[in-house]
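input
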Amino acid sequence: MLQLALIGLLGGLITGISPCILPVLPVIFLSGGVQGARKGTVTSWRPYLVILGLVISFSTFTLVGSFLLTLVNLPQDLLRWIGLVVLVLIGCGLIFDRFQHILEKPFSWIPQRKVGTENGGLVLGLALGVVYVPCAGPVLAAIAVAGATGQVGVETIVLTLTFALGAAVPLLVFALAGRRVAERVKAFRKNQRKIRIAGGVMMIALAIGLVFNLPQLLQKLVPDYTSTLQEQVQDNEAVKKALDLGGLVNDQNRELDKCSNGSTDLESCGTAPDIKGIQEWLNTPGGQAVNLKDLKGKVVLVDFWAYSCINCQRSVPHLTDWYSKYKDSGLEIIGIHSPEYAFEKETRNVMSGAQDLGITYPVAIDNTLSTWTNYRNRYWPAHYLIDSEGTVRHIKFGEGGYQTTEKLIRELLQEANPSAALPAPIEASDDGPVAGATTPETYLGTTKKVNYAGREPYKAGVGLYSTLANQPGDSFSLKGSWDLGTQSITPASAGSSIALNYHAKQVYIVVSGEGMIDVVRDGKTTAVAVSGTPTLYQIVDDSGIHEGKLEVKIPQGIQAYSFTFG
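output
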């Protein structure tokens, strides 16, 4: 039991310092500094009450929220909507004193029980708990499986509470920091009214942003600096054993242990377990079910995902690209939507999420996690690659490993049909042309800068850049004003461009945002429409490998991540 508690705390702490806390962080910070009572000083207990409410709400919602809603036949996302409404009401109460009086009336019979005072901190925490969506990890996966399958025992409760407490510790630090600033900084003490209004606006903005999934855009732009810690936890054998709370091994899945996570070579891990217990199918003719036995002869990639999981959102663009590229060559992808939270069980939410991510391959709604448990899965995302005979040949947990996965997809497609002429690889792949025959993948972010040939220092922030008269091969330089980030770069003014000298047959650019980029080559301009989250766009497709030069003109509002070559 002690081991589970320590694992829960560690998993929660890692989550609490991850990019997943960013959407709620401003509200947490201001909650500690916003004056509770209209007269007096900053309340001493408010930060603790906010975090206590978050822990209680998140723990209860995660473990039994879905069960309670199902019991009374209510929509699975009802609690989330209630939380959003409460956030808006509290925000309005902070902005408008008259409205706060209205909110206080139901509690007027209880002394000091006012929405805007310390007790309001608990209400705010309860609301945040049902809208706070932490990053997926092995600890959270174990909790979600137990809650979804009804296997909630003492061990699961301990794990849930310690995970919630671990995640709450960093949030409490930020809340106390907000209170400290409010107590010590004169501007906070003199401008309590303005601070209250700012807090109210922040809460309303968070609620509106969550409705439209805007915080996820922020999370995608921030590199997951806790991924290494997360991998160390999920790959630890003691942790794996302790978190296997459900006894998931059965006759169909016992051989999956023969596959190692992310192997660079094909392995043989038994016949693929059945896809079962599916509530509904999306993207199939008439909503018909897909049976793996009917897909013999095809290479199948089974992807476990959830639409609000930021790790999955970063992974899905690779899958949609593979599906578009290889479906005519015999690849089938099946997305098993396995919800982390009750609101992810609503089919309309999944449909909207799949549409936003550009998913056109079949999606199975696995609300009871029946297929998830049949694959002994514990991760979002998780990829199971199945050959044309129905044998699992590769497993990859979490993000990354895309070059390897595409390489193995190509090997299995070739194995199934040796005479097939496969299209060029996407992921600057391991099985592309001989090493050195094409320009290496070119990252544009400052932390992974490769092949830069400009005169100016390549550092984070806004700067002016100029191209070279004699730029060397296999390199790039910038022109105009650019804002350089750790993962991507974006123009800071009009007229900015990238000069690229390359050696390849195909050239691809990874960009996101909304607008048109112009690719100038040999005096001719080609316009490429960009829309949505980061994904790959082909800008050169020639008949053979050769040296070339490009100027890519990028407008403001578009972020550029990298160039890849084939």
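quick obs: The chain has 17 helices and 13 strands.
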